[in-house]
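Submission sheet (multi-component)
Chains listed below:
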Amino acid sequence: MLYVRDSLDVINGKWKMMILISLMNGNRRFTEIERSIPKITSKVLAKELKDLEENQLITRTVHDSYPVLVEYSTTAYVKTLDKVLRELHNWGINHRKKIFGK
Amino acid sequence: MLYVRDSLDVINGKWKMMILISLMNGNRRFTEIERSIPKITSKVLAKELKDLEENQLITRTVHDSYPVLVEYSTTAYVKTLDKVLRELHNWGINHRKKIFGK
DNA sequence: TATATTTGCTTTCAAAAAGTAAGTAGTTAC
DNA sequence: GTAACTACTTACTTTTTGAAAGCAAATATA
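Outcome: structure written.
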Protein backbone atom coordinates (compact mmCIF):
# COMPACT_ATOMS: atom_id res chain seq x y z
CA MET A 1 0.00 0.00 0.00
CA LEU A 2 3.09 2.15 -0.27
CA TYR A 3 1.92 4.15 -3.21
CA VAL A 4 -1.41 5.30 -1.85
CA ARG A 5 0.44 8.35 -0.56
CA ASP A 6 1.47 9.28 -4.11
CA SER A 7 -2.10 9.08 -5.29
CA LEU A 8 -3.39 11.09 -2.42
CA ASP A 9 -0.87 13.84 -3.06
CA VAL A 10 -2.48 14.44 -6.42
CA ILE A 11 -6.17 13.76 -6.06
CA ASN A 12 -6.69 14.39 -2.38
CA GLY A 13 -8.77 17.27 -1.17
CA LYS A 14 -12.38 18.01 -0.74
CA TRP A 15 -13.00 19.07 -4.32
CA LYS A 16 -10.56 17.65 -6.87
CA MET A 17 -12.39 14.40 -7.52
CA MET A 18 -15.70 16.18 -7.73
CA ILE A 19 -14.31 18.60 -10.30
CA LEU A 20 -12.95 15.76 -12.39
CA ILE A 21 -16.28 13.99 -12.26
CA SER A 22 -18.09 17.17 -13.24
CA LEU A 23 -15.82 17.51 -16.26
CA MET A 24 -16.28 13.86 -17.15
CA ASN A 25 -20.01 14.47 -17.03
CA GLY A 26 -19.64 17.00 -19.80
CA ASN A 27 -19.40 20.31 -17.98
CA ARG A 28 -16.80 22.54 -19.57
CA ARG A 29 -17.42 26.13 -18.57
CA PHE A 30 -16.37 27.66 -15.27
CA THR A 31 -19.87 28.55 -14.22
CA GLU A 32 -21.28 25.21 -15.31
CA ILE A 33 -18.77 23.40 -13.19
CA GLU A 34 -19.41 25.71 -10.28
CA ARG A 35 -23.12 25.08 -10.45
CA SER A 36 -22.71 21.35 -10.75
CA ILE A 37 -20.83 21.06 -7.48
CA PRO A 38 -22.90 22.03 -4.46
CA LYS A 39 -21.24 24.39 -1.98
CA ILE A 40 -18.05 24.98 -3.91
CA THR A 41 -17.09 28.64 -4.13
CA SER A 42 -15.57 30.33 -7.16
CA LYS A 43 -12.38 31.10 -5.33
CA VAL A 44 -11.79 27.48 -4.44
CA LEU A 45 -12.83 26.29 -7.86
CA ALA A 46 -10.41 28.67 -9.55
CA LYS A 47 -7.60 27.47 -7.34
CA GLU A 48 -8.36 23.80 -7.75
CA LEU A 49 -8.61 24.13 -11.52
CA LYS A 50 -5.15 25.67 -11.55
CA ASP A 51 -3.85 22.81 -9.43
CA LEU A 52 -5.38 20.19 -11.67
CA GLU A 53 -3.98 21.92 -14.72
CA GLU A 54 -0.50 21.92 -13.22
CA ASN A 55 -0.84 18.21 -12.56
CA GLN A 56 -1.87 17.69 -16.17
CA LEU A 57 -5.21 16.25 -15.29
CA ILE A 58 -7.12 18.95 -17.12
CA THR A 59 -6.54 21.52 -19.85
CA ARG A 60 -7.73 25.09 -20.04
CA THR A 61 -8.53 26.52 -23.44
CA VAL A 62 -9.38 30.12 -24.15
CA HIS A 63 -11.46 30.56 -27.29
CA ASP A 64 -10.77 33.85 -28.97
CA SER A 65 -14.37 34.41 -29.85
CA TYR A 66 -16.87 37.09 -28.86
CA PRO A 67 -17.52 36.70 -26.07
CA VAL A 68 -14.33 35.03 -24.99
CA LEU A 69 -15.03 31.52 -23.78
CA VAL A 70 -12.91 29.49 -21.45
CA GLU A 71 -13.27 25.75 -21.65
CA TYR A 72 -11.92 23.12 -19.33
CA SER A 73 -11.61 19.47 -20.18
CA THR A 74 -9.98 16.40 -18.77
CA THR A 75 -6.87 14.96 -20.35
CA ALA A 76 -6.67 11.37 -21.48
CA TYR A 77 -4.72 10.69 -18.33
CA VAL A 78 -7.80 11.14 -16.19
CA LYS A 79 -9.25 7.97 -17.71
CA THR A 80 -6.69 6.05 -15.71
CA LEU A 81 -8.55 7.21 -12.62
CA ASP A 82 -11.72 5.45 -13.70
CA LYS A 83 -11.24 2.45 -11.48
CA VAL A 84 -10.43 4.57 -8.46
CA LEU A 85 -13.54 6.63 -9.00
CA ARG A 86 -15.69 3.56 -9.54
CA GLU A 87 -14.50 2.02 -6.30
CA LEU A 88 -15.07 5.24 -4.42
CA HIS A 89 -18.54 5.39 -5.90
CA ASN A 90 -19.29 1.83 -4.87
CA TRP A 91 -17.99 2.35 -1.41
CA GLY A 92 -20.05 5.52 -1.10
CA ILE A 93 -23.22 3.62 -1.91
CA ASN A 94 -22.29 0.97 0.58
CA HIS A 95 -21.42 3.45 3.28
CA ARG A 96 -24.65 5.35 2.82
CA LYS A 97 -26.53 2.10 3.30
CA LYS A 98 -24.62 1.44 6.46
CA ILE A 99 -25.25 4.88 7.90
CA PHE A 100 -28.85 5.45 6.90
CA GLY A 101 -29.91 1.85 6.96
CA LYS A 102 -30.84 -0.10 3.86
CA MET B 1 -20.48 9.02 -9.72
CA LEU B 2 -22.93 10.57 -7.32
CA TYR B 3 -21.72 8.77 -4.26
CA VAL B 4 -18.06 9.63 -4.50
CA ARG B 5 -18.87 12.63 -2.33
CA ASP B 6 -20.14 10.35 0.44
CA SER B 7 -16.93 8.37 0.38
CA LEU B 8 -14.78 11.43 0.39
CA ASP B 9 -16.59 12.83 3.40
CA VAL B 10 -15.39 9.88 5.43
CA ILE B 11 -11.96 8.95 4.14
CA ASN B 12 -10.78 12.24 2.76
CA GLY B 13 -7.91 14.09 4.30
CA LYS B 14 -4.20 13.94 4.15
CA TRP B 15 -3.83 11.22 6.76
CA LYS B 16 -6.90 9.02 7.24
CA MET B 17 -6.07 6.48 4.57
CA MET B 18 -2.47 6.30 5.69
CA ILE B 19 -3.55 5.63 9.25
CA LEU B 20 -5.89 2.85 8.15
CA ILE B 21 -3.12 1.30 6.09
CA SER B 22 -0.74 1.52 9.02
CA LEU B 23 -3.26 -0.31 11.19
CA MET B 24 -3.88 -2.91 8.52
CA ASN B 25 -0.14 -3.46 8.41
CA GLY B 26 -0.24 -4.49 12.04
CA ASN B 27 0.65 -1.34 13.92
CA ARG B 28 -1.51 -0.97 17.00
CA ARG B 29 0.12 1.43 19.43
CA PHE B 30 -0.02 5.19 19.17
CA THR B 31 3.71 5.61 18.89
CA GLU B 32 4.06 2.75 16.42
CA ILE B 33 1.51 4.32 14.15
CA GLU B 34 3.13 7.71 14.52
CA ARG B 35 6.51 6.32 13.55
CA SER B 36 5.11 4.40 10.61
CA ILE B 37 3.72 7.50 8.92
CA PRO B 38 6.38 9.99 7.86
CA LYS B 39 5.76 13.61 8.83
CA ILE B 40 2.58 13.07 10.79
CA THR B 41 2.56 14.86 14.14
CA SER B 42 1.11 13.51 17.37
CA LYS B 43 -1.48 16.23 17.49
CA VAL B 44 -2.83 15.41 14.08
CA LEU B 45 -2.65 11.69 14.71
CA ALA B 46 -4.60 12.00 17.94
CA LYS B 47 -7.28 14.03 16.20
CA GLU B 48 -7.55 11.74 13.21
CA LEU B 49 -7.76 8.66 15.40
CA LYS B 50 -10.71 10.22 17.19
CA ASP B 51 -12.35 10.99 13.90
CA LEU B 52 -11.90 7.47 12.63
CA GLU B 53 -13.23 6.07 15.86
CA GLU B 54 -16.33 8.22 15.60
CA ASN B 55 -16.87 6.93 12.09
CA GLN B 56 -16.53 3.39 13.37
CA LEU B 57 -13.58 2.61 11.19
CA ILE B 58 -11.31 1.85 14.13
CA THR B 59 -11.63 0.90 17.79
CA ARG B 60 -9.61 2.13 20.73
CA THR B 61 -8.95 -0.25 23.58
CA VAL B 62 -7.33 0.67 26.85
CA HIS B 63 -5.67 -2.25 28.57
CA ASP B 64 -5.71 -1.85 32.30
CA SER B 65 -2.25 -3.19 32.73
CA TYR B 66 0.95 -1.66 34.09
CA PRO B 67 1.89 0.32 32.20
CA VAL B 68 -1.46 1.20 30.68
CA LEU B 69 -1.51 0.29 27.04
CA VAL B 70 -3.74 1.77 24.39
CA GLU B 71 -4.39 -0.27 21.30
CA TYR B 72 -6.01 0.74 18.08
CA SER B 73 -7.36 -1.62 15.49
CA THR B 74 -9.50 -1.47 12.42
CA THR B 75 -13.07 -2.69 12.47
CA ALA B 76 -14.33 -5.31 10.06
CA TYR B 77 -15.91 -2.48 8.13
CA VAL B 78 -12.54 -1.23 6.96
CA LYS B 79 -12.16 -4.39 4.91
CA THR B 80 -14.80 -3.00 2.60
CA LEU B 81 -12.29 -0.31 1.70
CA ASP B 82 -9.85 -2.85 0.34
CA LYS B 83 -10.73 -2.30 -3.28
CA VAL B 84 -10.55 1.45 -2.96
CA LEU B 85 -7.14 1.23 -1.39
CA ARG B 86 -5.92 -1.24 -3.97
CA GLU B 87 -6.97 1.04 -6.80
CA LEU B 88 -5.35 4.03 -5.17
CA HIS B 89 -2.21 1.99 -4.75
CA ASN B 90 -2.23 0.93 -8.40
CA TRP B 91 -2.85 4.44 -9.57
CA GLY B 92 -0.04 5.70 -7.38
CA ILE B 93 2.41 3.32 -9.01
CA ASN B 94 1.18 4.37 -12.40
CA HIS B 95 1.37 8.05 -11.59
CA ARG B 96 4.87 7.77 -10.22
CA LYS B 97 5.94 6.14 -13.48
CA LYS B 98 4.39 8.98 -15.40
CA ILE B 99 6.06 11.67 -13.34
CA PHE B 100 9.51 10.21 -12.88
CA GLY B 101 9.53 8.17 -16.03
CA LYS B 102 9.48 4.40 -15.71
C1' DT C 1 -31.25 54.25 -23.76
C1' DA C 2 -30.83 52.66 -19.13
C1' DT C 3 -30.66 48.95 -16.17
C1' DA C 4 -29.93 44.19 -15.16
C1' DT C 5 -27.65 39.97 -15.86
C1' DT C 6 -24.03 36.66 -17.32
C1' DT C 7 -19.20 35.03 -17.44
C1' DG C 8 -14.84 34.00 -15.39
C1' DC C 9 -12.76 35.01 -12.37
C1' DT C 10 -10.08 38.19 -8.14
C1' DT C 11 -10.01 40.57 -3.75
C1' DT C 12 -10.80 41.20 1.07
C1' DC C 13 -11.60 39.68 5.48
C1' DA C 14 -12.88 36.09 8.89
C1' DA C 15 -12.83 31.38 10.48
C1' DA C 16 -11.12 26.82 10.54
C1' DA C 17 -7.55 23.48 9.98
C1' DA C 18 -2.86 22.07 10.15
C1' DG C 19 1.86 22.38 11.66
C1' DT C 20 5.62 23.22 15.30
C1' DA C 21 7.34 22.76 19.59
C1' DA C 22 7.14 22.07 24.11
C1' DG C 23 4.94 20.03 28.12
C1' DT C 24 2.83 16.40 31.17
C1' DA C 25 1.71 12.29 34.15
C1' DG C 26 2.93 7.90 34.98
C1' DT C 27 6.40 4.08 34.47
C1' DT C 28 10.61 1.98 33.94
C1' DA C 29 15.56 1.49 32.93
C1' DC C 30 20.32 2.80 34.19
C1' DG D 1 18.47 10.45 40.62
C1' DT D 2 18.56 11.21 35.88
C1' DA D 3 17.01 9.82 31.49
C1' DA D 4 13.77 7.78 28.50
C1' DC D 5 9.32 5.92 26.95
C1' DT D 6 4.14 6.22 26.21
C1' DA D 7 0.06 8.55 24.88
C1' DC D 8 -1.24 12.29 24.51
C1' DT D 9 -2.43 17.81 25.39
C1' DT D 10 -1.48 22.72 25.18
C1' DA D 11 -0.07 27.06 23.29
C1' DC D 12 1.16 29.43 19.43
C1' DT D 13 1.97 30.27 14.35
C1' DT D 14 1.06 29.53 9.60
C1' DT D 15 -1.69 27.91 5.94
C1' DT D 16 -5.94 26.84 3.91
C1' DT D 17 -10.87 27.53 3.39
C1' DG D 18 -14.89 29.93 3.16
C1' DA D 19 -18.25 33.77 2.55
C1' DA D 20 -19.18 37.79 0.30
C1' DA D 21 -18.46 41.32 -2.62
C1' DG D 22 -16.37 43.26 -6.71
C1' DC D 23 -15.05 43.72 -11.58
C1' DA D 24 -14.54 44.20 -16.71
C1' DA D 25 -16.54 43.04 -20.84
C1' DA D 26 -20.57 41.68 -23.20
C1' DT D 27 -25.47 40.61 -23.81
C1' DA D 28 -30.29 40.77 -22.75
C1' DT D 29 -34.37 43.15 -21.07
C1' DA D 30 -37.51 47.15 -20.43
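Remark: The domain at 4-75 of chain B is CATH 1.10.10.10 (Arc Repressor Mutant, subunit A).
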